[in-house]
TrEMBL record:
Protein name: NAD(P)-dependent oxidoreductase
Organism: Pantoea wallisii
Superkingdom of the source species: Bacteria
Gene3D superfamilies in alphabetical order: NAD(P)-binding Rossmann-like Domain
Keyword set includes Secreted: no
Length: 285
């Protein structure tokens, strides 16, 4: 779309995990543009990292498609409350659950709270992620590597395992992978490794859950403008973020929403084990 912000953007940096308010330009999550058509009416969705970025765009889209939404987030309370307000403005129920998904017990708590309040879980979106830009292997501490694995991989496993008993036939699990799964970036070594594992996990999970009628897929975004970018990359890298793809710009979270809606909907009943690339023109094989 020609009205999307073009490269370059302002060099900037935030303290991790970042927030929406400080981003320049402001990210587009579909607040004023996404229009639903009842494709998820009556469904309940759990979204980790649902306060901002891709998760926020998915929460808005799901609510406007008729789903109640559970927003799991770390501690970005203002962003989370704002996202919940948008869900409620769409006429749907929103449940906010703060906490660290690296902890297995908290992941089980998310699922238990959802099941208690809504009675079922139709859609799980494992979207929470952690990354840090590092110039060399020596710069990656054991603790940082551990946090990356636990946020991006372990949490996905914990939540899927807890959620499946509450998911009816026709349920959908959608895991956020990355273009880096196919084209790993050396300065995002640990993050890229987790994204490759997410693609593999999603494919195996699709086969494992097929007899239950539950589908599992992944979405592989390219460079998307979320708080994670200014919070984990040096300012000069933020300035050129997205310029390397054929469309020569970063994508907006709103541009991911359609893929997540499609995979969650009953119209995708024969799509399982797939990875949907939303990369600004970069082929993911």
């Amino acid at each position: 779309m020609t009205n999307r912000p073009q490269h370059p953007q302002k060099a900037q940096q935030q303290t991790w995990p970042g927030n929406i308010q400080e981003m320049q330009p402001k990210a587009d999550h579909g607040e004023t543009t996404y229009k639903g058509s009842g494709r998820l009416k009556g469904k309940t969705a759990v979204i980790t990292g649902g306060d901002s970025g891709i998760g926020r765009a998915v929460a808005i889209a799901y609510a406007r498609e008729g789903a109640d939404v559970v927003i799991s987030y770390l501690d970005e309370h203002d962003d989370a409350k704002d996202t919940a307000s948008l869900v409620e403005e769409a006429g749907q129920r929103a449940l906010l659950i703060a906490g660290d998904v690296t902890e297995a017990e908290h992941c089980r708590h998310i699922v238990a709270q959802t099941a208690a309040q809504f009675g079922k879980i139709d859609i799980v979106v494992n979207n929470a992620a952690y990354q840090m830009t590092r110039q060399s292997l020596d710069e990656i501490s054991d603790d940082e590597f551990d946090r990356t694995m636990k946020t991006n991989l372990y949490a996905m496993f914990y939540i899927c395992k807890a959620a499946v008993p509450h998911m009816p036939s026709g349920g959908s699990i959608i895991n956020t992978a990355s273009i880096n799964a196919d084209q790993p970036k050396p300065k995002l070594l640990a993050y890229s490794a987790t994204k490759a594992a997410i693609v593999n996990f999603s494919g195996g999970l699709a086969a494992l859950l097929a007899e239950k009628g539950i589908r599992a897929n992944a979405v592989a975004p390219g460079p998307i403008w979320t708080p994670l970018i200014p919070a984990t990359m040096p300012p000069e890298q933020v300035e050129s973020f997205g310029s390397e793809v054929p469309l020569q710009r970063m994508g907006q979270p709103a541009e991911l929403a359609a893929a997540y809606v499609m995979l969650a909907s009953d119209e995708a009943s024969y799509i399982s084990g797939a990875t949907i690339a939303v990369t600004g023109g970069v082929a993911v094989i």
